[in-house]
């Protein structure tokens, strides 16, 4: 009896997850292909290192404004995709889609066209977005669904060498964020940059573990292991750097956070624009 109930509960959880991701992907694709084109400022206006320099000075506006714009765009499409009666789902889908679109725009940044350089370097910008996705969503796995949405849309647009398996490298960082971030920020705590650097480094290693597993399954083992140590070092390094960007990004969204507050907000405590989504 217990096993049957557990199986039904697990199936229900999976069904909800599939619905959230499917709706988010549909909204993301619709927003990306919107005939109106991108909103002003949506397209990357500066390169990766220019963005990093701004972030190193504590100026996270270049990142947070992009997220806010994309969430606003996602709200418009979510209102047409999600039942207005289900505000919680509509809110999470809008956040997941908006952050996912912002991540895709970060992936569009180029250092040198068509020349591979320091794989994992965009974790400096992507990891804070995973953290924000976890804190802005009501659901337990907001960052996981955000990574899944980003990975599926990237796959549909032809990203990566290993097809659908490329999605895994986007899912794992989100899952690790959903497991670690609520614990670190519980009760309104705000860890310092050192703690975030350690956490972000661990998340980056998780991402590389996913990449290594896919590579090992598709390439000769000798080739996969030849890149193991360099890949670990590079990902860990950029992951640690991302930890220094996380605190100002969280601070920029402080008034909109759903998790990591003390006391946790109820539906009526959320900002007006969040409560009225859908």
| Rg, nearest Å | 18 Å
Helix content: 55-70%
Distance between the termini: 39 Å
Domain module count: 1
Order of helices and strands: HHHHHHHHHHHH
What is the overall pLDDT average?
75
Largest sheet: none
Give the tally of β-strands. 0
Shape: globular
Classify the secondary structure makeup into a structural class: mainly alpha
What amount of the residues lies in strands? under 5%
* Low-confidence residue ranges: 1-16, 35-44, 272-278
Q: Helical region count?
A: 12
What does this structure look like?
This protein has 278 residues and is mostly helical. The chain has one domain (18-275). The chain is 67% helix and 0% strand. The chain has helices spanning 2-32, 48-56, 61-81, 87-107, 123-136, 142-156, 168-184, 193-218, 221-226, 228-243, 246-252, 272-275. α1 packs across α4, α5 packs across α11 and α8 runs antiparallel to α10 (228-243). The protein is globular and about 55 Å long. The chain starts with a helix and ends with a helix. Residues 1-16, 35-44 and 272-278 have low confidence and may be disordered.
């Amino acid at each position: 009896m217990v096993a049957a109930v557990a199986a039904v509960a697990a199936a229900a959880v999976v069904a909800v997850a599939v619905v959230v991701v499917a709706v988010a992907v549909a909204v993301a694709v619709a927003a990306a292909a919107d005939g109106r084109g991108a909103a002003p400022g949506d397209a990357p206006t500066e390169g990766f290192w220019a963005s990093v320099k701004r972030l190193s000075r504590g100026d996270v506006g270049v990142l947070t404004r992009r997220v806010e714009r994309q969430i606003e765009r996602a709200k418009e499409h979510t209102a047409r995709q999600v039942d207005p009666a289900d505000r919680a789902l509509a809110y999470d889908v809008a956040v997941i889609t908006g952050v996912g679109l912002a991540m895709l725009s970060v992936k569009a940044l180029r250092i040198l066209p068509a020349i591979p350089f320091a794989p994992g370097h965009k974790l400096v910008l992507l990891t804070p977005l995973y953290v924000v996705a976890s804190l802005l969503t009501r659901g337990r796995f907001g960052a996981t669904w955000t990574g899944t949405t980003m990975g599926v849309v990237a796959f549909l647009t032809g990203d990566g060498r290993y097809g659908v398996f490329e999605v895994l490298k986007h899912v794992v960082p989100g899952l690790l964020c959903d497991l670690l971030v609520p614990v670190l920020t519980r009760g309104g705590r705000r860890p310092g940059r050192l703690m975030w650097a350690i956490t972000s480094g661990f998340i980056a290693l998780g991402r590389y573990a996913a990449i290594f597993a896919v590579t090992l399954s598709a390439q000769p083992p000798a080739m996969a292991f030849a890149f193991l140590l360099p890949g670990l070092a590079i990902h860990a390094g950029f992951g640690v750097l991302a930890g220094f960007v996380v605190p100002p990004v969280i601070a920029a969204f402080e008034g909109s956070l759903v998790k990591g507050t003390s006391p946790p907000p109820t539906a009526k405590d959320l900002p007006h624009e969040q409560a009225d989504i859908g």
